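Internal ticket - ligand job 294, uracil:
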Amino acid sequence: MGQNSLRRLAGELKNFLLEQDEDEFIIPAAAPTTAAAAGVSRASEPQAMEEGSTLRVDFPRARQTQPAPQPSQPVQPPEETPLMTTAQKKAALTELAETIKQCSRCALGATRLNAVPGEGNVDAELMFVGEGPGYDEDRQGRPFVGRAGQLLDKMIVAMGLTREQVFIANIAKCHPMVDPLHPEKHGNDRAPNAGEIACCRKFLEQQIAIICPKYIVALGGVSAKALISDAKSLGALRGQFYNLQLDNVTLPRPVKILATFHPAALLRNPNWKKDAWKDLRMVMAELGLKGPAK
Ligand code: URA
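stdout (structure tokens):
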């Protein structure tokens, strides 16, 4: 076969692979769901992976990173796209959390003690997105409940809010471990890899679309890169708002996102706290928050 034919064949194969949908490995849900009824595409029911089967995942794409003009007024939802009601959001998020708890699309599903879907106020104007559960979160099935979580709680209070007023989630929903054979070990945390992030992307995107907060704070480089641009470092992404662009769902109204340091990084480097505080104050200014009542 000549070189041109080989090149054409390779091109056709590449296009064929690009056209495949990752859902080909997932059994679609039979019945319509609350979320679907409310206009949000539902999390597909994942099918447990069979031994020896391979899971194809789509790796995260770089996003457009055009800085959003800093809005002087809080973002108003366009009339024609009403948000879900509180009851609809609760039902959709509960259903999604159940799907996440059953998920075994990547290897983390086999080693987690508990999936950690996220928690908080379904009508929150502000959402925090961390990296992934650690030791404590894996045990409790709740996000940010360890040392980093205690610092996050303080950051939220310093903004004039409570944990109950915001929504907290992670990029990865299951505990990524350095040594998955020893989940009982401390200091066994690692960042989720690109495949794990890709597996969880739809879950997070659906959570964001359901809650539709006005602002998201991406905590740390993993979250900032996954949600804003994987082409830039946290340092390059900090300091400005971006219009959030999702891959799999349409947002009912624009959502702005700002990146800052992960609380665990602030515990290791307390001298970064003043810069993190600058970031949080940008969000406070947008939301009209004045900090805790004296
Ligand atoms: N670190 C995170 O990124 N998320 C958690 O839930 C806990 C620690």
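Auto-summary: The radius of gyration is 20 Å. The longest strand covers residues 126-130.
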